[in-house]
Design brief:
single chain, six-stranded antiparallel β-sheet, 586 residues, 14 helices, five-stranded antiparallel β-sheet
Length: 586
């Protein structure tokens, strides 16, 4: 390709990127587009769930992809504490989607300004835990992953009357509970007594301990509820995932028919069925069994009918249990609660699942024109409107707007401080790196505690990963190969080291638990800092290597032009009506 033609194509490519960004921005402002499949919404988190007998090593696993794009991404560690008799615990409204300019104070410094007026008796001892937008794991190996599922509009309660939102419930569970069942009963009872809602609608939590994992779903009961009514201020239901099964929640209610006569697999609020009858969501005379999700959060569509906008549920099951041959045309409401995977899953397998982008399916967002000449699956991540018509686009498990992703492991063969691990990856799944943090740590890196979407800061860990992500997007199919090499190196190193760290920590724990915790803290912080430094360096390398849309070879100190795919060049010739240079006369 001659220089003139290359420059022309480069300009068109850059303009194309700008046009794509403008379309996304336009869809962002569309007031009439109210579906979560349509524009950026609060409903954006994917949760993967693995029972202990469905995992390679016997650990119970959950994940949480915090898909927001504008939310607070900071993390904090809260140490265990003893409390005096008579102490009270203040309850705050904590908007999971809220963030503030750094000069006004970080979220976890200013949230105490939103005191609900409610105080409940403090417990003698609260457990230590780490949290981001939600509480993720405490020092008892209790772990949580979250996904917004929504509910019927008339059930929402946006008034400040309910004192609990989902974030506050997870924090109380972290502080007070050792097991899944304790946590579910605590969160359910607090929500029933004091009300649930305000900033939140229907929510799902995957709640795990070293022995089991449950799906807990909770919803408000309408804006007219008051504590004086004597009625529950929330409605909730929970179902246990069989130990040899896996499940997923892609912003859709997952609990169907329930059997409250089987308390080993089902729990629910006292109004779980009566509320549906009272509001006409289910008729006991219909002959149809009561179905939780159909009553309170019904959603239509399948992977195929929505062009992959609601395909995460089908995609997950097709990946973990391909032998069952789930059809993308099966309505999501008809897909199973959980499945036994064809093979047991490792942590590495789960990492790969969180990065899935429908590769090899008709819903692959990198295919054809949408992905551009360099097969970027992150172009036009939302649906759009043109000439008064709406167009849905695929929504994969891995999206480019994640604040962070977590994978929790709860392992019953190790003491709690060693058995629990939270893997944290800041930013988009495809360009970030998982870093392990044991449940027994005493602190987290300072760089995790601050940062903001609108203020670039090299002292904030998250920006290191966004820095790499930014330099990956323009020439995605080339740059992502460099990123994957770095992921394989660092994540592979961590996975290889964990059994060794476990063994050393266990030997220390038997002699002195505090020394074991110190050892784990130092390992986690040092490893994370090394990864963060490596990602800053990777971002610099990508900038140099692909500078000015050329390829610069550092070793040879030479550069070469990019090679564009033929299909793109043919479209360019056709659309821009380009004429070939006249052949030279011989």
């Amino acid at each position: 390709m001659n220089l003139r033609k290359f420059c022309c194509v480069s300009v068109i490519l850059i303009l194309g990127i700008a046009l794509t960004s403008s379309l996304v921005f336009a869809s962002h402002k569309c007031k009439s587009c109210d579906s979560e499949d349509w524009i950026p919404q609060r409903k954006g988190c994917t949760v993967i769930i693995v029972g202990k007998d469905a995992s390679v090593d016997g650990s119970v696993m959950t994940t949480h992809t915090c898909d927001c794009g504008v939310c607070d991404w900071t993390w904090r560690y809260v140490p265990p504490a003893d409390h005096k008799p008579g102490e009270m615990r203040k309850i705050y409204h904590i908007d999971q989607f809220g963030s503030w300019p750094p000069e006004k104070g970080l979220k976890w410094d200013v949230y105490t300004k939103n005191f609900t007026g409610l105080e409940i008796p403090q417990v003698p001892h609260t457990y230590g835990y780490i949290h981001g937008m939600f509480g993720y794991m405490n020092d008892q190996q209790l772990a949580i992953g979250e996904s917004t599922i929504g509910c019927r509009k008339e059930m929402e309660n946006r008034t400040p009357t309910p004192k609990f939102d989902i974030t506050m419930l997870t924090i109380l569970a972290m502080e007070r509970c050792k097991t899944v069942r304790e946590a579910i009963k605590l969160m359910g009872s607090l929500a029933e007594k004091y009300g649930y809602g305000y900033t939140d609608t229907g929510e799902m939590l995957a709640v795990a301990d070293p022995n089991e994992v449950w799906i807990f779903e909770i919803m408000p009961v309408g804006p007219l509820w008051t504590p004086e009514s004597g009625k529950p201020g929330a409605i909730w239901c929970a179902q246990r995932v069989p130990d040899d099964h896996v499940s997923v929640c892609p912003n859709e209610s997952r609990i169907g028919e329930i059997d409250l006569n089987n308390p080993d697999y089902f729990m629910a609020s006292s109004n779980v069925i009566s509320y549906a009858i009272e509001h006409g969501y289910w008729d006991p005379k219909s002959g149809e069994p009561f179905n939780w999700k159909k009553a309170y959060s019904p959603k239509e569509g399948s992977a195929l009918s929505t062009n992959g906008a609601r395909g995460r549920l089908w995609r997950f099951f097709s990946l973990v249990a391909p032998s069952k041959k789930f059809s993308p045309d099966t309505p999501n409401m008809e897909l199973p609660f959980s499945v036994k995977p064809d093979k047991k899953l490792s942590v590495k397998d789960v990492m790969a699942l969180t990065r899935d982008k429908y590769q090899g399916t008709p819903f692959d967002p990198a295919r054809g024109l949408q992905g551009g000449p360099f097969a970027n699956p992150n172009f036009l991540p939302y649906g759009f409107e043109l000439n008064g018509k709406r167009y849905r686009l695929p929504r994969p498990i891995s999206v480019n707007r994640a604040e962070y992703v977590t994978i929790t492991q709860s392992r019953n063969w190790l003491p709690n401080p060693i058995g629990g691990i939270v893997w944290i990856a800041f930013g988009a799944q495809d360009t970030s790196c998982y870093m392990p943090f044991y449940a027994g740590i005493k602190k987290i890196p300072d760089s995790f505690k601050f940062g903001d979407h609108w203020t670039f800061d090299r002292k904030s860990a998250r920006w290191a990963f966004d820095y790499v992500d930014f330099h990956t997007q323009v020439l995605y199919s080339l740059a992502i190969q460099d990123v994957r090499k770095a992921q394989e190196k660092w994540e592979g190193m961590a996975l290889e080291w964990i059994p060794i760290i476990d063994k050393i920590a266990l030997e220390l724990y038997k002699k002195d638990p505090e020394k074991a915790r110190d050892f784990l803290t130092n390992f986690c912080i040092n490893f994370a800092n090394n990864v963060i430094n490596a990602w800053w360096e990777l971002g610099d390398q990508l900038l140099v290597k692909y500078n000015h849309l050329w390829i610069y070879d550092v070793k040879t100190r030479k550069r070469k032009p990019l090679k564009f795919p033929e299909w793109y060049l043919k479209l360019l010739i056709e659309y821009n009506k380009l004429k070939p240079e006249p052949e030279k006369k011989k």
